[in-house]
């Protein structure tokens, strides 16, 4: 590894650390802030659930593309997934800044299943941020071996987060106040 690459990697790592801490903190702060007199953006949850579903599909398509040697397609799909994830985050925060929190109204075992899915979704959605950024940075640094190594961990976690995002929406949607 050249000195120039090492310097670039150190810069990336610092930026990744800052972003990985800043995003959850900013989301937590904004989640607790309600815009006064704002009309609830109740149309957003099905849109951002759809974005999660599309992300899951495109993640799988990206893996199929790279396994078939279609590197450019893989790159475009993964970049699209990062854009979709950012778009999801903006919509998610906008919804929660204009709407009251929806409480799951189910009973019995389904309630525990819902909260298990929700909690693992939240924890892994936070942990996937640095994983995605590290994996993506390895390509930029032309370190494809490290990229493949990190992708083995990033892909299943990101896929889980995308799929459980849809499941959480499906399970809580009957309880939304429109």
UniProtKB/TrEMBL annotation:
The chain crosses the membrane at residues 12-35, 47-66, 78-97, 112-136, 157-176. It comes from the Bacteria. Keywords: Membrane, Transmembrane, Transmembrane helix. Pfam families: DUF420. This is DUF420 domain-containing protein. It comes from Flagellimonas yonaguniensis. The lineage of its organism: Bacteria, Pseudomonadati, Bacteroidota, Flavobacteriia, Flavobacteriales.
């Amino acid at each position: 590894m050249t000195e120039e690459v090492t310097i670039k990697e150190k810069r990336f790592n610092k930026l990744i650390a800052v972003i990985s801490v800043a995003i959850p903190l900013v989301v937590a702060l904004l989640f607790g802030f309600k815009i006064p007199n704002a009309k609830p953006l109740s149309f957003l949850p099905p849109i951002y659930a759809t974005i999660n579903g599309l992300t899951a599909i495109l993640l799988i398509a990206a893996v199929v593309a790279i396994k078939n040697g279609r590197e450019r397609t893989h790159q475009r799909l993964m970049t699209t997934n990062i854009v979709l994830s950012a778009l999801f985050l903006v919509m998610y925060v906008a919804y929660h800044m204009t709407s009251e929190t929806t409480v799951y109204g189910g009973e019995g075992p389904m309630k525990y299943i819902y909260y298990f899915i929700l909690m693992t979704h939240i924890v892994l959605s936070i942990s996937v941020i640095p994983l995605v950024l590290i994996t993506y940075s390895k390509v930029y640094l032309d370190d494809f071996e490290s990229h493949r190594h990190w992708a083995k961990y990033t892909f299943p976690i990101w896929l889980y987060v995308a799929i459980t995002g849809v499941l959480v929406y499906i399970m809580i949607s009957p309880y939304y106040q429109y």
